[in-house]
Amino acid sequence: MESHEKHNPDADDLPPKYPEHEKLHAVKHLTQNIHDFLEWLGAEKQIDLCEVTDADYGEFYPTSARTDDLIAEFFKIDLKKLEEEKLAMLEECRRTRGLA
Fold this sequence. Notes:
The protein has helices at about 20-45, 65-75, 80-95, and strands at about 50-55, 60. By secondary structure, the protein is mostly helical.
């Protein structure tokens, strides 16, 4: 059976519709493992991430940074844009289902 859809060769060069979700999807298995490992360190080994308060005296305090924020930053995933994409996806679903 022949397809009646036209293939647009330039379409492969277009940026993804939801780029932050594409980035997250590509590393999801890694991000989950890193998150689980850091949670395990804290719960099982009582090892927490810390920030330096005074390097000269070796003073540290537990970081207030969220694990998810640090992992996203490491993988260059913008969480604000990710949330905006989620809202756009929901809106698109509502429109296609006639709910908007």
